[in-house]
Amino acid sequence: MFRIKHDYVESKFIACILETYSLSQEHVQLSDSGIGNPVLVKFIEGCYRQFLQSDQDYNFWFDRQIIECSYSPGTNRSKVPDDKIESQPLFLAKRTFKRKQKSEVQYFYPISGSHMYSIKPISIELDPFFEFLKIDIPSDLSTENCPSSINLYKYSNGSIINDHTCPGISDSAIADIAYENDKYYWVLGQVKKIFKCTKFPGQCAMTFLKKLNRDRHESTCRIHTKVTSKMVN
Ligand SMILES: [Zn+2]
Question: Does the pLDDT at position 228 exceed 70?
Fold first, then answer.
């Protein structure tokens, strides 16, 4: 991740341009001294002049919901705020800090999806979110109709649950989505996934924090497990 600098173009504007086009490091030639590609610098300066003349705000100009994530250079992680995602998002890595009692802001590029996290699941509108992920939008996202690039979970009482109705976890999935009634959430780490026994749905209520332990339990699970515990109670 490199810090974005320019003499007069706002770093936020440059971050938006670079993230919009997902420009490669070789193309941008971003280093501690700034953007090394002179053609790109000219292009950005031209766009910035038009942007200032347009009097439009960032979201309108870029036609995206711009979401500024708190980037921490120490951990190289970016925290996504939990605002609802209602249109196609554009994520920026931003660092805010105080120097001499003044608030300073820096932007970094490129933000890395695998280094993004949130404190709680983020409410999303499915259509723009799928557009952002660049995957086809299923007419309705359900456990029977879930693309392999999505891990679909249930969201209940603040927990992400993987039970027998969910299609399971795929290594090729690019996003974890949880649903509760007709609401959908983007799950970005730091949330416990609970694995339910699937052998006797509705009868065995055993849950596990690790899939391996659930699988191990399932290989020996008998319905009488529950009957026994009922008798004990
Ligand atoms: Zn069981």
Answer: no
Ligand 1 centroid from CA 177, angstroms: 25
pLDDT of residue 122: 95
Confidence of residue 166 (pLDDT cuts 50, 70, 90): low
Give residue 165's pLDDT: 57
**Centroid of ligand 1 to alpha carbon of 219 (angstroms):** 9
The CA 153 to ligand 1 mean position distance, Å, reads 19
The better pLDDT of the pair 51, 226 is held by 51
Domain borders along the chain are 2-117, 122-194, 197-232
Q: Residue 142 C-alpha to ligand 1 middle, in angstroms? A: 25
Instruction: Give pLDDT tens digits for 204-215.
Output: 888 888 889 989
Q: For residues 145 and 163, give the distance between their C-alpha atoms in angstroms, rounded to a whole number.
A: 16
